[in-house]
Write a structure and sequence with these properties.
Largest sheet: 7 strands, mixed
Strand order of the largest sheet: 7-9-6-10-8-11-12
Distance between the termini: 20 Å
Low-confidence stretches: 302-307
Helix content: 25-40%
Length: 307
């Protein structure tokens, strides 16, 4: 039987590329030593039918194309340096719609203090936006440099975007989080001096935990530390959705997930939510509100995998 990409999924494809290249690191970005610092570079492609909800504006498409890339810089603790934009458009897209996309890109560049420095254009059957973000840092934050006993924390509540994708109304915090998320670039610049490791939450908390897990280490997450509101639970229930599934397995929050020592947590000058701890259990677990402990499944958003 001949394997197809849908049989193994995006993460296995990426692992193959990394294993066959000497210059790619398994982190969120590429790290290139330059003079006395490091150039951080990252690239993300967004395809209209795969990455943008139907009710998103063209402006928000452009803004998000910058956000997803800047979020990777944030996870590395990098100062934004420049942004490259490659965009493919259907030939029947209106000029007004094109201008809205570019307005969103430029507004996001202004918001993150990252100048648009170049790019490319082409034709396609749907909107495809590829961004490349460059940054600088003298101390890159890696994914797996945590220690046993470190606390696990996030820069804000998660699951909001996941719920927002399911709501018809746009006038609520959940839909706003889904349609116009913000990268935590300022928090990343602070965390590089305090955290032991970091990544951003794009594919869901569970997926990111498994992505950073190394042998002989485990993670214990506590439900009662996840800041889950009664409103969130109620809205999820009304939609016949499992609120924990939304929090653990969907993603698109663009919050930073990081580990930090207890001593450094006391010194940390930004707000965060501590949600668990690094253990030596070699498994990823969740302590429920009722005290029961269950394994967290390795499941999250992934390209190529058939529904």
């Amino acid at each position: 039987m001949t394997l197809k990409v849908s049989d193994i999924g995006e993460k296995e494809l990426v692992r193959y590329i990394i294993a066959n290249s000497k210059y790619i690191t398994p982190d969120d970005t590429a790290i290139t030593e330059f003079s006395s610092t490091n150039i951080i570079s990252t690239c993300d492609m967004l395809i209209q039918s795969r990455h943008f909800p139907k009710n998103i504006s063209y402006f928000d498409m452009g803004f998000k194309a910058v956000t997803v890339n800047v979020s990777d810089l944030a996870a590395m603790g990098a100062e934004p340096l420049g942004f490259l934009l490659a965009i493919a458009l259907p030939k029947d897209l209106t000029i007004d719609s094109f201008k809205e996309i570019i307005d969103g890109v430029l507004k996001a560049c202004e918001y993150y203090h990252i100048p648009l420095i170049g790019g490319d254009t082409n034709e396609a059957s749907e909107i495809i936006i590829t961004g490349t973000a460059l940054g600088l840092t003298d101390k890159p934050l890696m994914k797996d440099t945590y220690n046993k006993g470190d606390l696990i924390a996030i820069t804000g509540s998660i699951g909001l975007a996941a719920l927002g994708f399911e709501l018809d109304s746009l006038d609520n915090i959940y839909s706003k989080k889904a349609l116009n998320p913000k990268a935590r670039i300022n928090e990343g610049l602070v965390l590089k001096d305090f955290a032991t490791s970091a990544t951003d939450i794009t594919d869901g908390l569970a997926s990111e935990l498994y992505e950073i897990k190394k042998d002989n280490f485990g993670f214990m997450i506590y439900e009662d530390m996840l800041n889950i509101t009664e409103e969130f639970k109620s809205l999820s229930c009304n939609l016949n959705l499992d609120y924990l599934d939304l929090i653990l397995h969907v993603g698109e929050d663009f919050e930073l997930l990081f580990t930090i020592s207890k001593d450094n947590l006391e010194k940390l000058p930004i707000d965060c939510l501590v949600i668990g701890e690094v253990t030596d259990s070699d498994v990823v677990e969740l302590t429920l509100e009722n005290g029961f402990v269950e394994r967290i499944k390795n499941k999250g958003y992934e390209h190529y995998v058939s529904e």
